[in-house]
Design goal:
The complex is a heterodimer of chains A (408) and B (159). Chain A is 40% helix and 15% strand. Chain A has 15 helices and 15 strands. Chain A starts with a helix and ends with a helix. Chain B is globular. Classes of the chains: A alpha/beta (408), B alpha+beta (159). The A-B interface holds A 20-21, 342, 344-347, 350-351, 354-355, 361-363, 367, 370, 376-378, 399, 402-403, 405-407 and B 3, 6-10, 13-14, 19, 22-23, 44-48, 69-73, 132, 134-135, 138.
Amino acid sequence: MSFDVHRIRQDFPILSQPQHGKPLVFLDSGASAQKPRAVIDAMTRCMETAYANVHRGAYRLSEVATDAYEAARGAVARFINAPDAREVVFTRNSTEAINLVAHSWGRGVMRPDQAVLISELEHHANIVPWQMLRDDRGNPLRVCRVTDSGELDMEDLAAKLADGKVGLVALAHMSNVLGTVTPVERVVALAHAHGAKVLLDGSQAVVHRRVDVAAIGCDFYCFTGHKLYGPTGIGVLWGKLEHLDRMPPFLGGGDMIESVSFEKSTWAKPPARFEAGTPAIIEAVGLHAAIDYVNAIGMPAIEAHERALVDHAMRKLSDVPGLTLLGRAQDRGGVFAFALDNAHPHDLSTLLDRAGICIRAGRHCAEPLHTRFGLEQGTARASFGLYTTPEEVDYLAGALVKAREFFA
Amino acid sequence: MSGNDFFGDLRDLYQEVILDHGRKPRNFRRLEDADSTSRGDNPMCGDRMELFLKMTPDGHIADAAFQGRGCAVSMASASLMTETVKGKTPQEAQALGTAFRDLAMTGQCPTCAASLEDAMERLTPLSGVHEFPSRVKCATLAWHTLNAALAGAKEASSE
């Protein structure tokens, strides 16, 4: 199928809703993406025709719902090329997936003297759980530097792995601020050579790139549904089965046990071990529909569209007087954080909103990264989805010039 | 299309007084001999200020100054605040703060005492912020910080 962005836009009902009397220019997909009709309909259809609790009812409707829920797991596995669908654990979001690993692998498998290595470009979701682990169990936290161009400092990474005391490297596959795509294959090779496992936060990357966990060779990979045009409330933790098998449960409750008595309970096998309680059934169906939607367009076509858009945006934004772009990585996706010399990000966001443009302002859950670049006051961020057009980028650039005049 | 039309009714929020005080905040300095200081933080957006108060022997605010970083609204609000609280007693300044928060949240100030009328008139350009719920705390951060300074607290947060 050829990629026609204007036809694709018609799949997203919200994009035809004006904002403040102007066409909606939604440039905050990095925070959460809009939903195509296919996802909305799949979730409605599930509730209208195929809904019951899963994994427990010996009646047809429950079996249909269970099949739909497990089919979603299979779709996720194929989407990231996981060798086995049992390696796919549904969580609430990426944050919960990382917390699951921090608790279950961090406290249950890692020794307290093993360090966790993260980087300066991490989202708070990939910082705070490891700080909590450190404070709880003593696992040292190491932080890999980021270069001035906004890329992972690979020399520093190697140096911080050298003593063999790192148990886990936890990194973003793509920065939610700089747009930088990290060289994950190289990271994995380096980490494994020093005895460390690798967790990748793919929240941004999975939307923009074809992700193949088998080819990357990582140990854990997580992402969230709502940035991938799916619903909120559903996320994914993928982990190698040999790891998941060794991990104790994260939350206790129904669905995650084999047998329960007041003396002792035994745990179900993965993935059920990590899915206590009634899961997000409707949301899993929605995520499945989102994956089908993205697959039908084709990840290579989405990537090509985005590469062209990124090049266009680099040129257009560089032409805006007084604009400083944060990060100039060689390999980057459609996320642009910037500062405008005389307009504070919050003022800018309020102003652009009146022109129909939604951007994010602040530190984007990456305060240490902003401190690293001396931008404690935050930045404005425009992030693209598969429905973003070059005309929207032009409109943004024009609006930024006008905003600068407004505050002059 | 001029910036005015392009950005709709934003001149209601960004009146000339606000833009002016945002660009050139008054009393933007440290008071080395301050009697009390307090730091205000808006952790969500990274706005931060430090407020300095100098009191007269009979307990009036002799001087008020601040330093910090933030958006035009928070800088302008702090700037206007330091101008309006000078000469006031702590009680008067706190009453003014309460009235201002009403103004920022509703655009009106029904409980405003006659004695505060002059000061409130100076602060009225900020009333437009009530149309922007996510921005109200930008305008109120300075006043939270003032309350903390008057109460002898070192920190205030607008969260």
